[in-house]
Design goal:
- The chain is mainly alpha-helical and 190 residues long.
- The protein has a single domain, classed as Hypothetical Protein Ta1238, Chain: A (Up-down Bundle), CATH 1.20.1200.
- It is 54% helix and 5% strand.
- The protein has 5 helices and 4 strands; from the N terminus they run E-E-H-H-H-E-H-H-E.
- Strands 1-2 form a two-stranded antiparallel ribbon. A two-stranded antiparallel sheet has the order 3-4.
- Strand 1 and strand 2 form a beta hairpin.
- Helix 1 packs antiparallel against helix 2 and helix 3 runs parallel beside helix 5.
Length: 190
């Protein structure tokens, strides 16, 4: 269990921070950027949740918890050292749950006949903001994976990818199953 007695430590005053392994890194390190963006996604989902209810609200709260798992995974790189605890990792079941939920939500929505602009209901709009942040986190995780000394599991990237898809479909659900989607009209303002 996490216990935080003191909120400020002053250790970041020189532009560095510590990963959960104790390793000191710059605050702008790609790993810190990735889990920082995951935190932004979580905050955006928290705002979206203000407009949600029922099953969608429950799913958003579950995803917020999963995002803390994702951040913990990213903050604990497997460098082959024995740790005093079992690191928390994103697992395939979390990715599969997102896929199952995407399929279930998408079953009642008509197929797209245009790209969808972020908008519609307040809930849908906030879900689109969260989706764009999730895509940024996905790009940052992919960049981290490409670095030779920055191990990240495949499940981490898959989760980030599915999450942005989940948020897109949930946005369509929030837009009355696509009926209130704001559609892109190519060249409309020429």
């Amino acid at each position: 269990m996490v216990k935080l007695d003191k909120i400020y430590t002053k250790t970041g005053d020189k532009g560095t921070t510590r990963l959960s392994t104790g390793e000191e890194v710059d605050k702008w390190h790609p790993r810190v950027a990735a889990y920082g963006t995951v935190d932004e996604v979580n905050a955006a989902i928290g705002v979206a949740a203000l407009h949600a209810s029922g099953d969608l609200l429950a799913a958003l709260r579950r995803i917020q918890n999963d995002l803390f798992d994702l951040g913990a995974d990213l903050a604990t790189p497997d460098r082959g050292r024995v740790l005093e605890w079992e690191p928390l990792r994103i697992v395939e079941a979390q990715v599969e749950r997102l896929e199952t939920e995407i399929d279930a939500m998408n079953a009642d929505i008509p197929p797209l006949d245009s790209f969808v602009l972020p908008g519609g209901t307040p809930l849908a709009t906030h879900l689109h903001v969260a989706r764009t942040l999730a895509r940024r986190a996905e790009r940052q995780i992919a960049q981290l994976i490409a670095m030779p000394d920055e191990p990240v599991t495949a499940e981490v990237l898959a989760f980030a990818n599915r999450l942005s898809d989940w948020l897109f479909v949930a946005g369509r659900v929030a837009n009355n199953n696509g009926a209130d989607d704001v559609k892109w009209v190519p060249g409309a303002n020429r």
